[in-house]
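Researcher: We're teaching a course module on how sequence relates to structure. For the next exercise, students receive a sequence and then see the predicted structure as tokens, so they can try to spot secondary structure elements on their own. Here is the exercise chain.
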Amino acid sequence: MSNKTEIRYLSPVDIEKRQQNKYCRFKKMGIQYIDYKDPEFLMRFLNEQGKILPRRITGNSMKFQRRLAVAVKRARQIALLPFVGDNLK
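Model: And here is the predicted structure for the students to work with:
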């Protein structure tokens, strides 16, 4: 009964459900200070190449995303995290 030329798009309901599952881990757990000396924790917010994951993927608030970026950059400077990595995970 449907035409072959009919184009179907994702419904906005699915997109809204996905956004509800995102939350700021730092606010939920009550973390005020992101320790740059803990590379295992910071690795959760990096992709395979060593880039910092964006807010839209991690769900962090803007305040904590900035703090996370500073912590990752500090950890890179003192060689706890690599600047570039081929297979980090």
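Model: If you want an answer key for the exercise: The longest helix spans residues 62-77. DSSP finds five helices and no strands in the chain.
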